[in-house]
Design brief:
It is a multi-pass membrane protein. Belongs to the TonB-dependent receptor family. Hemoglobin/haptoglobin binding protein subfamily. It holds the Pfam family TonB_dep_Rec_b-barrel. This protein is mostly beta strands. The chain has one domain: Beta Barrel (Maltoporin, Chain A). 9% of the residues lie in helices and 54% in strands. It has a 22-stranded antiparallel β-barrel. It has a five-stranded mixed β-sheet with strand order 3-8-9-6-7. It has a two-stranded antiparallel sheet with strand order 1-2. Strand 1 and strand 2 form a beta hairpin. It starts with a helix and ends with a strand.
């Protein structure tokens, strides 16, 4: 009932604003141009650029100009502004958990992240990489986000949401830009961007380097704190700071000529800290590294045979690694698990797993617009993923209770099937899809699509979608959407071995999700834009590690089910030529159907507000406010609910200093709020009982030169 009252109230607001704000003499063509401007175009909903109001999806577009306004230094700070999306944290390296509409999991494999339309999903855990290390934003031209399923277009893992990061081209840079930033946590960033023409080629080069000690908020108690109380030791490093230092180097190249475009990139991560610890026991010395190489060649011809044919073909390669730079300690020096009188592990429990993967993708699709009322899109493709090297050096094994036992000195157990955590494997995926956009009247459009996928390791899946878009008025669009999506089991879930805590299961089925949505996109005036989205989803065959009744060993099974519903309201308002306001509110309620309790961990309510005020020529002040409200604990977690938090940021920017210079100053978490993200609950104990602290107040200053 409370939810229905909220929806009726939102609809009343839309109606009232229309009645009060519409000008009798409004120019209809001008309003339509405002509705379908370049900033409001999106491509990931159908594979073809389309006005966001008419796109058959609930979507958000964030431009490079928006990123500047936010004052963001990393991708996660940008995504936190999207309604219905909250960025939580995994203890391991504080990797981001992009939580769409209450769909939460520790490795976040239910979200598909693309760079220029190409997935960066890893086979091992189904995430972006365990050594993620953040992503800088200077090379980003725009970010397109779909809330809801996208498997009918993008296949596996386009589940709870799709995030497409589009990098800059020559047209976005137009010359050369160099910049530098310094700030809290001994943070230093530099970048160089260049876009120009050479011998008939359009070329863009982007280089970004960053080094930081990372925020060092305190973990009060960790997994070793509990073990100390159980085994009578006193070796925990808690209270102690999280380990979030890192060194990043990002390079991107974009070359285009005619119908062809070649892109290449490197994301190099070094000296990456372990966050709150790989085993949720503090590890200030452990260091990871990663190299992620990518290249893609795209052929695009909007008039392949004739003006009715639009053809695109793409070949891509990604090589990604998880490496260890310095020994990673699961538990600290002196850890003892019953080895009286001497400690079991005088140098600590050391585990150094390394994983290397390569991914080759090819796809080809074509649009045909020769029919009067139909736009047909068809495509085929393949993906070959190869986990081609697995290495492990460690000084422990696990007994039947899951407790570490000494192996003596460090041993290289690579290739030892009695000790290895995973074998080298590959996955082949072949797919085809068909989509029809049927404009059966001037104001109505129906998008129907289906995709068939075949996987070499778990079989076939079919995922349809339907989207009915009604141009209710020239300034109001109504959408009714249905979609089905799937999430492919990761190799850790399928093939984990020699691990009494969590064994893989090669007989797993993919998780699946069905979502029903109603969306209203409304422009009562040229200065005001409102959207309202209502959704209901059914998440089935959730993969969980379930203890065997006789051995108590956890094995991956399709055991979970979750349902959820909610609403998202957005408003963009240009109050004056020099001041605009952006706000959104998101509500979700998700239920674990096994326990009939709240699914937990995700906020029930989110409120976001951002303004941009040009108070003097070229002087911009951008405050933003993010309020995260009412996060319940998951079933079995008896801790009190985690506290709400509200964070206020402020950015001051001066543009066009002597035409070419730009300077900015930012303060994040101005009021130094104690903000925390939920830590995982264990079977017998919660390793980090007081959750994961976020950064306190921090300051950054930057300088740019564009010529």
């Amino acid at each position: 009932m409370f939810f229905l009252i909220r929806i009726v109230f939102c609809l009343f607001i839309l109606h009232t604003v229309d009645a009060l704000a519409l000008s009798p003499g409004m120019d209809e063509e001008e309003a339509l141009l405002g509705l379908y401007g370049d900033k409001e175009m999106i491509s990931i909903a159908t594979g073809n650029s389309k006005p966001i109001a008419k796109a058959p999806a609930v979507a958000t577009v964030i431009t490079a100009e928006d990123i500047k306004e936010i004052g963001a230094t990393d991708l996660d700070e940008v995504l936190e502004t999207v309604p219905g999306l909250h960025v939580a944290r995994n203890p391991r390296g504080y990797n981001p958990i992009y939580t769409f509409r209450g769909i939460f999991s520790q490795f976040n494999s239910q979200v598909l992240v693309l760079i220029n339309g190409i997935p960066i999903t890893n086979l091992f855990f189904g995430d972006r990489n365990q050594v993620w290390g953040g992503m800088p934003v200077q090379a980003i031209a725009r970010i397109e986000v779909i809330r809801g399923p996208g498997s009918a277009i993008y296949g596996a893992d386009a589940f709870a949401g799709v995030i497409n990061i589009i990098t800059k081209t020559k047209e976005d840079i137009k010359g050369t830009e160099v910049g530098a930033r310094a700030g809290s946590f001994d943070t230093w960033d530099t970048w160089t961007l260049h876009g120009g023409a050479w011998s008939g080629f359009d070329i863009a080069v982007m280089l970004e380097y960053g080094d930081t000690d990372g925020q060092q908020e305190t973990i009060d108690a960790d997994a070793q704190t509990f073990l100390d109380s159980r085994f009578g030791t006193d070796v925990s490093l808690a209270p102690g700071p999280v380990n979030l230092q890192r060194e990043n180097f990002d390079a991107r190249l974009d070359i285009a000529r005619g119908h062809w475009r070649l892109r290449a990139g490197l994301q190099r991560r070094r000296n990456v800290g372990t966050g709150a610890g790989v085993a949720e026991a503090l590890d200030p010395k452990g260091r990871f590294a990663s190299d992620r190489w990518n290249a893609d060649l795209t052929y695009y011809n909007p008039e392949f045979f004739n003006e009715n044919w639009n053809v695109k073909a793409q070949l891509s390669y990604l090589d990604t690694s998880q490496e260890v730079e310095e020994d990673v300690r699961l538990f600290p020096r002196g850890a003892d698990f019953g080895g009286i009188p001497e400690p079991d592990f005088p140098v600590g429990v050391i585990g150094n797993p390394e994983v290397f993967e390569r991914h080759i993708r090819f796809n080809m699709s074509a649009f045909y617009t020769g029919f009067k009322q139909h736009q047909i899109r068809a495509g085929v493709g393949m993906h070959y993923g190869d986990l081609y090297d697995v290495k492990e050096v460690k000084n422990f094994t696990l007994d039947s209770r899951g407790l570490p036992r000494p192996l003596g000195s460090l041993r290289d157990v690579t290739g030892d099937l009695s000790q290895a955590f995973l074998r080298e494997r590959d996955r082949k995926n072949y797919y085809l899809f068909l989509q029809d956009v049927w404009r059966f009247s001037n104001d109505w459009e129906l998008t129907a699509g289906v995709r068939y996928d075949h996987f070499s390791d778990f079989g076939n899946t079919i995922n349809p979608r339907l989207a009915l878009v009604w141009l209710t008025r020239y300034n109001l669009t109504t959408k009714l959407l249905y979609g089905r999506a799937f999430r492919a089991p990761s190799f850790a879930e399928l093939f984990n071995i020699n691990n009494p805590v969590a064994l893989g299961n090669p007989n797993l089925d993919p998780e699946n999700l069905e979502t029903l949505e109603l969306s209203l996109d409304y422009h009562p005036t040229n200065e005001l834009h409102l959207t309202l989205s209502l959704f209901h989803y059914w998440w089935n065959d959730i993969i969980q590690f379930i203890p065997h009744p006789k051995t108590n060993i956890n094995t991956a099974q399709n055991a979970g089910k979750q349902t959820g519903f909610g609403a998202e309201l957005e408003a963009g308002w240009k109050l004056t030529p020099n001041f605009h306001l952006l706000s959104n509110y998101a509500f979700q309620q998700s239920t674990d159907e096994q326990t009939d309790e709240n699914a937990g961990n995700a906020p029930h309510h989110q409120i976001y507000l951002r303004g941009n005020w040009e108070f003097l020529p070229h002087w911009h002040l951008s405050p933003q406010f993010n309020w995260v409200i009412d996060r319940a604990r998951a079933s079995g977690d008896n801790r009190i609910e985690i506290d709400d938090y509200s964070i206020f940021d402020l950015t001051l920017r001066r543009r066009a200093i002597k035409e070419h210079w730009e300077v900015a100053f930012s303060v994040r978490n101005l009021f130094d709020v104690d903000a925390r993200e939920p830590s995982p609950v264990g079977t017998l104990v919660t390793p980090i009982p007081h959750d994961l602290p976020l950064a306190g107040r921090s300051f950054f200053g930057e300088l740019r030169l564009h010529f």
